[in-house]
Design goal:
Chain lengths: 236, 588
């Protein structure tokens, strides 16, 4: 579904990504793990078109999208739940969700149905649906960002650190949500610091180190890899 | 700082003065004089717009305050012209305080509207109140500056303007290259973060307005005295716009931008004066093009050619353990460090803190945990002064701090980081950490303005401190990188470095491990323990339970704004209510 071929990106003064090739097959959960500064977020931004690519090719659904503008990629079915949330703080929770469906132009009954579905998933959002998003706690904003990304009914969902700032109980819910979303046939590319959980849910995983892919394989295999365990799981 | 720069400035000024003497043509001297006048306006305005980030559209009002001040003092009160010039600067400065007032409450376009209104009020005042200000008839017989009883001729006026411009440049350069310049820039970047490192937003905004007002007032007074006549036509809305454009066109936030703006726009103005019909049209078109093509002004265009873009290699996230104490403080350990008593907070119908009481012990690591939305960040915000408690007491070292302003709380010894990162993104990593030292630096306004030895010593000491903190946190190689260009996890570490630079006794960390992988989280844990060993008490909000349970001495649990448990990690971990509300069954 998504293919990155030899992608390189210079991000500000930092050469963040070098010659990275990643394959995300339809219906799978693929995760990218790596230390801070390895270039994971930059890579996600380039996939949605928020960061220009210096070299290489990105294709989605067989189409070359390397130069396609960001808003058109959303229409094609790519959605990002960004790191650090990026919710619209001066709009209500409900309006944030409605904006997530902006590119779909679908009927309002369907939209309402989706909103209800996410309220079921995140009851906290339902309680606060009329509040400005800026007044939510950090964790609630994270939930909102994920729900908003899903509102556009993407074919490919990019999640940048969905567990960031969430309580342990909620993190478990988030990973259960990811599993449930895969069951519905959604393709997911997940960047996550909680490597343990990420590898546990992923069909396939890539390890990114200082901008290059150093390891790849099945999620369950990497989970057992001694090098990965030492470097990313904190177990020696 | 060195003496090279002042010598060059003096040499250039003498060269310009000599050139003026050679030219001798009254028309050209008049243009040169106006360049000096506009440079003065722009230099002060640059502090306000380019550094402090406050857009003012009312500078003509301040220009008028100086011009009419000098005019009335020398005609109605028969004051000496030199005394009138100084008094005019003071009057304009007072008016600066007056228009700074609303800037403390309103921002962005609203502030522009308020300053615009000020400009219009002054314009109407001087044109309508003819008994005092003479209206369009004007005021005649304003005394010019004189030396030994001989009034200034056109050439002397230009010399005086050049001298004053050079002095203004040197003084502002002293001021802006150190502690004060950074503080102004921090206002522009993020006021809450500025407060958290001890910058009084209130004081610095007023200071920026006053600096802009004084230079503008002097410029006004010079125009009135040189013409020996002043009427209400001098003061117009166009003048306010022109002064703002001087800065934007030349390059705001650059020390040379105002000079470039003053010279080029005065020249363009003079050239276009031959064709009055197209003057405004050509002028507007040119500026539109310039601002579009050069968003950072002419100075920004030049600096792009001179600074090479270097590629920084990504740095692996390693950090050393602190070997030298970044903080050394004698403290009275007999009293509790922080006492939170029955604190509540209401946000409309929401109650993120409800009768919360706890106490922090010297040198311990405390953790504040609870579900999302439990009110943990609200508590941190109340302790650090970002929010005021609705009721209850917060006492730090025995004295009440609830409701104090953030910068005062920082000064007393409470440093903090923010959950969603509030770095000064456009400033370098080093500048961010130096801003942390702001409240510990002792060089005041006059010392900095005149670059007295104390200012140099304080700057050097702060640099050494900041560098050693960067070393400790493994950020040394990134010192010159813009903080906003770093990856998330490193930005978190820069925030920690900035908080440490405030030399806190109590360090509040709002989710320090968010965005770190387990390995990095473990390293952060070691770092936090090492910091606490240096005598810094820690209160952290955190969701990584392995981190919380391994390094905390004391854990406090909030749920829906209520404290539901506290105690040693092992005790809290087994508490039924905590498991139910937060940890989930499998963690027990």
């Amino acid at each position: 579904m998504l293919k990155l071929e030899s992608v390189s990106i210079s991000y500000g003064a930092i050469q963040a990504v070098r010659d990275v090739s990643i394959d995300v097959p339809r219906g799978e959960v693929v995760t990218i793990i790596g230390a801070n500064g390895a270039g994971k977020s930059t890579l996600l931004k380039s996939i949605v078109g928020l960061e220009p690519v210096a070299g290489g090719r990105i294709s989605f659904d067989g189409q070359d999208i390397t130069k396609t503008p960001a808003h058109r990629r959303t229409g094609m079915g790519v959605a990002l739940s960004p790191e650090g949330r990026g919710v619209f703080s001066d709009q209500s929770v409900r309006d944030n969700l409605l904006l997530g469906a902006y590119s779909k132009k679908s009927d309002s009954a369907r939209t309402e149905q989706k909103i209800e579905q996410f309220f079921e998933l995140f009851p906290r959002l339902k309680e606060r649906q009329e509040q400005f998003a800026g007044t939510l706690s950090g964790g609630e904003q994270q939930m909102l960002a994920i729900a908003r990304a899903l509102m556009s009914e993407p074919k490919l969902l990019l999640l940048d650190e969905p567990s960031l700032g969430l309580a342990p109980l909620i993190i478990r819910d988030i990973f259960n949500t990811i599993r449930a979303l895969r069951e519905t046939g959604l393709t997911i590319l997940l960047v996550e610091q909680m490597a343990n959980q990420a590898l546990g849910v992923a069909d396939r995983a890539y390890v990114l180190e200082t901008g290059s892919v150093t390891l790849q394989g099945k999620g369950s295999d990497l989970l057992k890899d001694p090098k990965v365990r030492a470097a990313y799981l904190g177990t020696h | 700082m060195g003496f090279l720069h002042p010598v060059i400035v003096v040499a250039i000024s003498i060269g310009a003065a000599a050139l003026a003497a050679v030219i001798g043509n009254d028309y050209y001297l008049r243009i040169a004089f106006m360049m000096c006048v506009y440079y003065l306006c722009a230099a002060g305005m640059n502090v306000l717009v380019g550094y402090a980030g406050q857009k003012s559209l009312g500078q003509a009002g301040l220009f008028a305050a100086g011009a009419y001040g000098a005019a009335l003092l020398s005609t109605s009160f028969d004051l000496n012209a030199w005394v009138a010039l100084v008094a005019a600067a003071a009057i304009a400065g007072l008016c600066g305080v007056l228009i700074a007032w609303p800037s403390l409450r309103v921002r962005g376009p609203y502030l522009a509207m308020v300053t615009l209104a000020f400009g219009i009020v002054v314009e109407k005042l001087v044109s309508e109140w003819t008994e005092v200000f003479g209206g369009a008839q004007g005021i005649y017989g304003i005394k010019p500056l004189e030396l030994a009883g001989v009034p200034f001729a056109n050439l002397q006026w230009v010399w005086f303007g050049i001298a004053l411009g050079a002095i203004t440049h040197l003084l502002l350069r002293n001021l802006l290259s150190g502690r004060f310049g950074r503080a102004f820039l921090s206002l522009q970047a993020d006021e809450i973060a500025a407060e958290s490192v001890g910058v009084s937003v209130y004081r610095y905004k007023i200071l920026a307005f006053v600096i802009a007002a004084v230079t503008c007032g002097i410029a006004g007074a010079m125009v009135a005295q040189q013409n020996q006549y002043l009427n209400s036509d001098f003061i117009s809305f166009q003048l306010s716009i022109f002064i703002l454009l001087l800065v934007l066109f030349g390059g705001s936030g650059s020390l040379y931008g105002p000079l470039i703006g003053a010279i080029s726009l005065t020249l363009i103005d003079a050239l276009l004066a031959r064709w009055p019909a197209v003057q405004h049209f050509a002028y507007g078109g040119l500026l539109l093009f310039a601002l579009y093509a050069m968003p950072n002004g002419v100075a920004g265009l030049f600096s792009r050619f001179f600074t090479k873009r270097s590629v920084i290699e990504p740095v692996p996230a390693t950090q050393k353990q602190p070997t030298t104490a970044p903080i050394q403080r004698n403290e009275d350990r007999s009293r509790p460090l922080l006492d939170v008593t029955s604190v509540s907070k209401n946000f409309g119908g929401v109650r993120p803190a409800n009768d919360v009481t706890f106490r922090l012990q010297h040198g311990h690591v405390h953790a504040l945990i609870g579900p999302n939305g439990a009110g943990k960040s609200t508590m941190i915000n109340m302790i650090s002064g970002v929010l005021t408690p609705s009721s209850g007491r917060i006492a730090f070292l025995g004295s009440e701090i609830g409701g104090l302003e953030s910068h005062g709380i920082c000064r007393r010894g409470i440093g903090r980081t923010f959950q969603n990162l509030r770095l000064f993104a456009g400033l370098s990593v080093l500048e961010n950490v130096l801003l942390g030292q702001h409240c510990r630096m002792k060089n005041g306004f006059w010392v900095s303005l005149l670059a007295l030895p104390q200012a140099r010593r304080e700057e050097a000491a702060a640099n050494a401190r900041a560098t050693s903190i960067l070393d400790t946190l493994g950020l040394r190689e990134l010192a010159q990188a813009p903080a906003g260009s770093l990856p998330y996890g490193l930005q978190r570490r820069v925030e920690l470095a900035r908080a440490l630079a405030t030399e806190p006794q109590l360090l509040l960390l709002d989710e320090p491990a968010a965005g770190l992988n387990p390995q990095e989280t473990a390293e952060l844990g070691k770092l936090i323990v090492a910091i606490s060993k240096l005598g810094v008490t820690i209160l952290m909000v955190e969701h990584h339970m392995d981190l919380v349970m391994s390094i905390s001495d004391h854990v406090i649990v909030l749920d829906y704004g209520i404290k539901i448990a506290e105690g040693a990690p092992s005790v809290v971990q087994c508490d039924k209510r905590v498991i139910e509300a937060y940890l989930g069954a499998e963690a027990a």
